[in-house]
Design a protein that fits this description.
This protein is α+β, with helices and mostly antiparallel strands. The chain contains 19 helices and 17 strands. Helix 4 packs across helix 6 and helix 11 runs antiparallel to helix 12.
């Protein structure tokens, strides 16, 4: 029995969500874009009237304003988009349980076994479109085909609000063999440039090209491209496809170019902390570390290296990322974007212990930090390096640093000599105290006398109250309040 696979693709999803929230914007120019002040000012999505005037995803906001001066601009609201995406997936699950989310605005459905409930493939797809329009207020395009690849390609033929059915591979080949190879799913500008060197201009050219040459040039990826060009795909629709992550990464566009190794390493360390925390939350371990840099000319550099063991610790990821930085980046070359990814993720893995217990200490430290952040917020505890100029913490929390400008320079001065050995600073919100019980090498934290959040290094606490005072704090038998100049020692975690 021939399979019937559908791909539901929401049209201009981000922009359409804002239009659904405000129906008065339907049919008008809507652009979702980042913040030019943070140099993330590019178009993320736009409505079809904007596309008709030449606005494209990735275009600078300034260029978009020239083309659409009267458009309605919105900053991205990812909670809104996730809410609409969840609502749409709920509608699709009413038609079949064989549903595979492909992205936030796309999903595959295997309709083969449920057509007797809903009618022909075209009738079923029409019902899906009508329910999404009625219940979510959004338009979508639906592609139907004998496999996931053909359904994906078919969904792009008619936009917006399209419906295309290619029942057989012959229908696919008639529809796509004459089209440019760049329109094939999985072919970007890099592949297109290399394929042109082989005289491959169209999807039909690629389908007729000897597969052995493609395998010699690109290995398994070359063979996969050849099968895609021919419309061949036997992969199932898997509802659990997103339950397992293959990689977890984080990247940040900086508000200004950085040119020194120390500045880039600061950003890398903070990204590694974010990546490692997400890896631990998912219960993963990984061994392939990737570093991505983009310079002021928008050229990307991505390099990877594999560790000899699986890890979920930021220090291991940071060490590997810095190794890639030293190998592939030239001092003084401006960088505007930094990204770190941990790949090769697995759920079942064994931690490689070391002779002197460093790994064990790092694991306990990470567990304690995770517990603190889960209970009191992500910004509750951070490394001292985050107090330096240009750190991501300062970029995100300019208002916080302004609030504490009276004593922050003093803290930053103490932080600088602590950065190399990665000692911790702790931020406590108001008078809220942490509960003892976490096992870690974190010694203590502090808050300002006036109930203003503050930061203080462990070494400073040791200097002010001494070893005995710290021991009493750890045992929970400290005096009423040990005065620490502008700070008051309040509690400790051990």
């Amino acid at each position: 029995m021939e399979r019937v696979i559908a791909l539901v693709d929401m049209n201009s999803f981000f922009a359409s969500c804002h239009q659904a929230e405000n129906p008065a914007l339907e049919g008008k120019e809507v652009i979702v874009a980042g913040d030019p002040a943070q140099r993330t000012g590019i178009v993320l999505a736009c409505s079809y009237p904007c596309k008709a005037k030449g606005v494209k995803t990735g275009m600078a906001v300034g260029e978009a304003r020239v083309l659409c001066p009267d458009a309605h601009y919105f900053k991205p609201d990812y909670r809104l988009y996730v809410s609409y995406s969840s609502r749409i997936l709920g509608i699709l699950r009413d038609f079949t349980d064989l549903l595979e989310p492909f992205s936030i605005d796309e999903a595959f459905l295997d309709l083969t076994a449920v057509l007797h409930l809903w009618g022909t493939p075209l009738e079923t797809a029409t019902l899906i479109k009508q329910r999404i329009r009625r219940e979510a207020g959004l338009y979508c395009s639906v592609g139907l085909g004998p496999n996931k690849l053909v359904a994906k390609m078919a969904a792009g033929l008619q936009k917006p609000d399209g419906l295309t059915w290619l029942p057989t591979l012959e229908d696919y080949r008639r529809a796509f063999y004459h089209r440019p190879v760049r329109e094939l799913f999985g072919v970007g500008s890099h592949y297109e440039r290399h394929l042109r060197n082989y005289g491959i201009r169209t999807i039909g050219d690629l389908a007729a090209f000897p597969v052995q040459i493609l395998k010699q040039r690109w290995g398994k990826n070359g063979e996969t491209l050849w099968h895609c060009a021919r419309g061949e795909d036997c992969s199932p629709v898997s509802p659990a496809a997103l339950d397992v992550s293959r990689s977890i990464g984080q990247q940040k566009t900086l508000p200004r170019d950085v040119c020194t190794r120390e500045q880039i390493r600061t950003v890398i360390l903070e990204l590694c902390q974010m990546v490692a925390r997400r890896v631990r939350q998912g219960g993963y371990g990984g061994r392939t570390v990737s570093l991505t840099l983009r310079d002021s000319e928008f050229h990307f550099l991505t390099r990877s290296t594999s560790l000899h063991y699986y890890t979920d610790l930021e220090d291991d990821i940071y060490w590997a990322a810095c190794l890639l930085l030293d190998r592939h980046w030239s001092e003084g070359q401006p960088v505007r974007l930094v990204g770190v990814t941990l790949g090769g993720l697995v759920h079942s893995w064994y931690r490689q212990l070391d002779l002197f217990g460093r790994q064990e200490r790092q694991v306990r430290l990470s567990q304690a930090c995770d517990a603190i952040k889960s209970r009191h917020g992500e910004k509750t505890i951070f490394r001292g390096v985050s107090l330096q100029e240009g750190s991501l913490m300062q970029i995100k929390n300019n208002t916080l640093w302004e609030k504490h400008r009276l004593y922050l320079p003093q803290m930053r001065e103490k932080a600088i000599h602590l950065c190399e050995d990665c000692k911790f600073f702790v931020l406590v919100q108001g008078r809220e105290e942490l509960r003892p019980g976490c096992v870690a090498s974190i010694r203590a934290y502090a808050s300002h006398e006036r109930s203003v959040p503050g930061v203080i290094p462990v070494q400073e606490i040791m200097r002010l109250v001494g070893q005995e005072g710290l021991r009493q704090v750890l045992q929970g038998a400290h005096p009423e309040k040990q005065s620490c100049g502008r700070f008051v020692l309040k509690a400790a975690v051990r």
